[in-house]
Write a structure and sequence with these properties.
Elements lengths: L2 H17 L2 E6 L5 H13 L2 E6 L1 H11 L12 E6 L5 H13 L4 E7 L2 E3 L1 H9 L3 H44 L1
Antiparallel strand pairs: 1-3, 1-4, 2-3, 4-5
Helix pairs in contact: 1-3, 4-5
Length: about 180
């Protein structure tokens, strides 16, 4: 690879690292071309980019973006999954694909913002619900007390209307 091409690759990788909300590093050793193609296709459906990287060029890009700790999770032949939206999406897509296709691939670590994620952290991310589900739960949790307050406030007038209707029926029957 010529120097100009290396500079272009580092610039491109640095730009992607800046935009990424989460980076997951994997050891792709042993994957066949069809397996890698299937993995990339699956990740692309989730708006996740999967790139094989050269460790030295990744180190340069990480230093340029202030994410020097990325070097800690890069070992051996490495490919990274870059997620730009939901932080759980890359982890879920990768692990689901690994489990369903039974490919021999390991996740070596991850990085969220400037924090290195261990394998345990990645497993925790896998168990988290998606962003949309968390927002729905939050909104539901906020709406519950409001609905109960409305019901309490409405119960007084409702009971009053019921009493007045019963009294009206009583007067009509008795008079």
């Amino acid at each position: 690879m010529r120097l100009e091409e290396k500079k272009r690759v580092v610039d491109e990788l640095a730009e992607r690292l800046e935009r990424a909300t989460v980076v997951i590093a994997t050891n792709y050793r042993g994957l066949t071309v069809p397996e890698m193609t299937a993995l990339r296709r699956r990740l692309r459906q989730e708006n996740i980019e999967y790139r094989v990287i050269k460790n030295n060029l990744a180190r340069l890009a990480a230093e340029r973006t202030g994410r020097e700790k990325l070097v800690e999770i890069i070992e051996g032949p490495t490919a990274i999954a870059l997620g730009y939206d939901d932080i759980t999406a890359p982890v879920k897509a990768l692990l689901d694909h690994i489990r369903s296709s039974k490919i021999e691939m390991t996740i070596t670590g991850g990085m969220m913002e400037h924090r290195v994620l261990s394998r345990a952290d990645i497993n925790t991310l896998y168990t988290l619900p998606s962003r949309e589900v968390l927002i729905a739960k939050l909104v539901g949790g906020l709406q519950g007390p409001i609905y109960r307050l409305v019901n309490v406030l409405n119960s007084g007038p409702t009971k009053l209307v019921g009493v007045l209707a019963a009294r009206k029926n009583q007067l009509e029957q008795g008079g």
